[in-house]
TrEMBL record:
Pfam families: AP_endonuc_2. It comes from Fusibacillus kribbianus. Residues 23-246 form the Xylose isomerase-like TIM barrel domain. Gene3D superfamilies: Divalent-metal-dependent TIM barrel enzymes. InterPro entries: Sugar_Epim/Isomerase (IPR050417), Xyl_isomerase-like_sf (IPR036237), Xyl_isomerase-like_TIM-brl (IPR013022). One of its GO terms (molecular function) is isomerase activity. This is Sugar phosphate isomerase/epimerase family protein. PANTHER family: 3-DEHYDRO-D-GULOSIDE 4-EPIMERASE-RELATED (PTHR43489:SF7), ISOMERASE (PTHR43489). Keywords: Isomerase.
């Protein structure tokens, strides 16, 4: 298993200086930097290649994370929006080779943040599956794994637990499509968080970790980290374990993730660095 964090850890906007962030995460002991997938379409090829070179220098893996906007919802009942979403995700997949990135994760089966204005689950599910079949073929050709992130009921209505996630995979029918279990979402939706990892088994392609209030692993008392670590070993999971910590208020990150109070205890950048370093060490101890 390799351990890392989402790129936005130090900021309150969905952007960062990736070269600086790579260096800081390496110094904290990370093996993985999870980038914003939409950013790869905004960068010149030279920028992507510079990030790839830095990641290689630091011996770090790059993964991509997406929460597609509503106008690119592949489950939409509007054909033009579905087409825009399919093309958007496929274009990202095509550009991943410039980063030497092989894992693309997120709520790509619909859009995020969801506003719940259309919750026709059967209809949107079917449209999403048909769209994903097309996207999965591109992923297969490019050697990319797509990991569907299971989200809680307050952020999405389409895939809320592991059972629904496995059904979605079966309906799509592609080896390039797997699941992402996030301890934050699973803590809300699953009867037994640990059992969901066993249920996913070899269909688990990516893991997100965080406390029940989205603090860094080790900052809380509710998530059964020892048992999750054992489950991952039992199912022979050897992929990335990525933290999605949200400690800071303000900006688009705070608004989208609903952080209405400071969870960092007033930490400055140096203290945030130490928090991340401690969390990586915590995960290595619990999971390895």
């Amino acid at each position: 298993m390799r351990f890392g964090s989402l790129y936005s850890y130090w900021g309150t906007e969905w952007k960062c200086d990736y070269l600086k962030t790579l260096k800081k995460m390496k110094e904290a002991g990370c093996d993985v930097l999870e980038m914003g997938a939409g950013h790869v379409l905004e960068m010149e090829l030279g920028e992507l290649e510079a990030i790839r070179a830095a990641a290689k220098e630091y011996d770090m893996e790059l993964t991509l994370n997406i929460g597609p906007p509503k106008d690119k919802d592949i489950a939409s009942r509007v054909p033009e929006i579905r087409r825009a979403g399919i093309d958007y995700l496929c274009n990202i997949i095509h550009r991943m080779k410039y980063l030497d990135a092989k894992t693309f994760i997120g709520a790509m089966y619909s859009y995020w943040p969801c506003d719940f204005t259309d919750t026709d689950k059967p209809g949107n599910w079917g449209r999403s599956v048909e769209s994903m079949k097309e996207i999965a073929k591109v992923a297969e050709d490019e050697g990319v794994t797509l990991c569907m992130e299971i989200l809680n009921r307050f952020e999405s209505y389409l895939i809320n637990d592991c059972t629904e996630g496995l059904q979605y995979l079966e309906d799509v029918g592609s080896d390039s499509v797997k699941l992402l279990i996030d301890t934050f979402h699973a803590n809300i939706e699953e009867d037994d968080i640990v059992a969901s990892f066993y249920q996913a088994g070899d269909k688990l392609g990516h893991v997100h970790v965080g406390e029940a209030n989205r603090k860094l692993p080790g900052m809380g008392r509710d998530i059964p980290w020892d048992r999750i670590g054992q489950a991952l070993k039992d199912i022979h999971y050897d992929g990335a374990v990525v933290m999605e910590p949200f400690l800071l208020t303000g900006g688009s990150v705070g608004a989208d993730v609903k952080v209405w109070r400071d969870l960092s205890n007033g930490a400055d950048e140096k203290q945030m660095d130490l928090y991340l370093k401690d969390a990586v060490q915590f995960l290595r101890k619990k999971f390895l």
